[in-house]
Amino acid sequence: MEMTGTTEAGLIARILAGEKELFHELIRPYERMVYLTLFSIVRNETEAEDGAQEAVISAYRHLASFRGDAKFSTWLTTIAINEGRKRLRKTKGAVEDSIEEKEESHEGDYTPAPLTDWREIPLEALERKELREALRVAVTELPGIYRQVFTLRDLEELNIEETAQALGITTGAVKVRLHRARLMLQKRLVPYLKTTAPARRGFFGRAL
Amino acid sequence: MKLECKHVWQHISEYIDGSVDAKLREDIERHLEHCEICSAILDSTRNILILTADNRTFELPVGYSERLHKRLAKELESSEQNSDDK
User: Fold this and answer.
1) pLDDT grade, residue A198 (50/70/90)?
2) What mean pLDDT is predicted for residues A186-202?
3) For residue A67, what pLDDT is reported?
4) Shortest CA distance from A33: residue in chain B
5) How far is C-alpha A10 from the chain's CA centre?
6) Under an 8 A CB cutoff, do A185 and B14 touch?
7) Within 13 Å of residue B81, how many CA atoms lie on the same side as its CB?
8) How far apart (Å, rounded) are the C-alpha atoms in residues B14 and A54?
9) Total domain count for chain B?
10) Which chain B residues are within 8 Å of A158, Cβ to Cβ?
11) Of the partner residues B6, B13, B57, the one whose CB lies closest to the CB of residue A136
12) Using an 8 Å Cβ cutoff, are A67 and A41 in contact?
């Protein structure tokens, strides 16, 4: 559920004026987003949860510096990203970052996997647990720069501009990384999708 | 213009987001009408995105929300005391 800008702005004003308890309500719609953002960076449940708590506390402490020109959700996501990066540096050093910068410039083979014997998979197939599990694993194992863009855009459903703003990259970079992330996932998950295809269909899509 | 499969793949992400221009959209759609392979790639990619956005796919740790609000309540309480001290 998304609160309207006015309601949210009103809530923020009241919190700053002293009704601190309302911060619980302000943050509630974004709890999931904060956790997923943290997880996309640290890839560990406990670290992600601790980081999410820190990010929310930090947002509370710095609420007065929030300006209405950005969306509250984007501002909060930026705080969550910074918290995640801080934690990552602490545990791994800057190693992963520098490796991933190289990946970015690498002209990789970002092509989808062609499917044969494909027909649109029925909705009940999407309900299968193995498919969800496979997707979770595949997303978690994406290289960091792709994982973070994919998480903000396709999991948290921020738009391209908000994703760019939160990560401090250009909209062009968001589009390229998103495209690659989606194709990498498609390629990786095709075996799972294939086994769910119940029947062959004719060459032009007609049932045989 | 007749598109090759490879060309369609390059734009598949933007096509899904609806951010290709009208002309390219038309070319892609014409290609999809007769290309089983590209249609399957598009369908499968879309399904992955539907599944990704489904809250049941990426779940939060059990008790996450309760712990978060408990921690927050503590913070609100202590900031109350701090402002009383001043």
Assistant:
1) very low
2) 66
3) 84
4) B60
5) 28
6) no
7) 5
8) 35
9) 1
10) none
11) B57
12) no
Q: Which tokens go with A193? A: 């999708």
Which domains, from first to last, does chain A contain?
A: 5-93 (1.10.1740.10), 113-194 (1.10.10.10)
Q: Which of A31, A45, A135 sits opposite B48 (nearest CB)?
A: A135
Mean pLDDT of A192-203: 53
Name the nearest CA neighbour of B32 among B63, B65, B3. Answer: B3
Give the model confidence (pLDDT) of B50-67 as tens digits: 999 998 899 999 999 999
CB atoms within 10 A of CB A82: 16
**What is the least distance, in Å, from the CA of A68 to any CA of chain B?**
23
Q: Residue A207's beta-bridge partner residues?
A: A201
Chain A: give the shortest CA distance to residue B26, in Å: 20
Residues 40-79 of B with CB under 8 A from A: 40-41, 43-45, 47-58, 60-61, 64-65, 67-69, 71-73, 75-76, 79
Tell me the C-alpha distance between B4 and B37, whole Å. Answer: 12
With beta carbons less than 8 A apart as the criterion, state whether B60 and A42 touch.
no
